[in-house]
Design a protein that fits this description.
This protein is mostly helical and about 160 residues long. The protein contains 4 helices and 2 strands. The chain has one domain.
């Protein structure tokens, strides 16, 4: 799904960036577009990773609070948190407790994933809205779909 969205989004944004400058500045526009795109991607991955861990951490803690676990087991689980959804219950707990811990880990992971996806969808929606409101493009001048050039290129 992400690949489909990016395959639609990236060429459109590149076209907007390249069409917003005169031909002599197209190399510069392309370089700036690539640099901003890569930097934004890196920052988004880092921010989403931190957000995922924070939601997973708090979700797991709240679910484990209801279980009667020894301090040693809690310490082992604290060390396992870095593995997120791949975290495992300690081997020295009974089967019922291990099942409850594994369920708590799975649910906390899903909580984190859900929040990250909702934030990503919100960012995509905000991006689309800002594009609609801020980018001056070519205007449709008749119902047949003929497109006129922007007013800055008419003179």
């Amino acid at each position: 799904m992400l690949g489909l969205g990016l395959s639609i989004l990236v060429p459109t944004l590149t076209t907007v960036a390249m069409n917003s400058v005169e031909g002599q500045h197209s190399g510069l526009a392309s370089g700036v577009n690539n640099a901003v795109s890569r930097t934004a991607g890196l920052l988004a991955i880092a921010a989403m990773g931190v957000m995922m861990f924070m939601v997973f951490d708090s979700g797991l803690d709240s679910r484990l609070a209801y279980l009667d676990l020894t301090p040693e087991v809690r310490k082992q689980l604290e060390e396992e948190k870095a593995n997120l959804g791949a975290a495992e219950a300690p081997e020295d707990v009974d089967r019922v407790t291990a099942t409850a811990i594994e369920r708590a880990i799975g649910e906390a992971f899903v909580d984190g994933f859900r929040i990250v996806m909702l934030v990503a969808a919100g960012i995509a929606l905000a991006s689309a809205l800002s594009a609609v409101l801020l980018i001056e493009g070519k205007k449709l001048i008749e119902e047949g779909g003929r497109i006129d050039e922007p007013s800055s290129q008419k003179a």
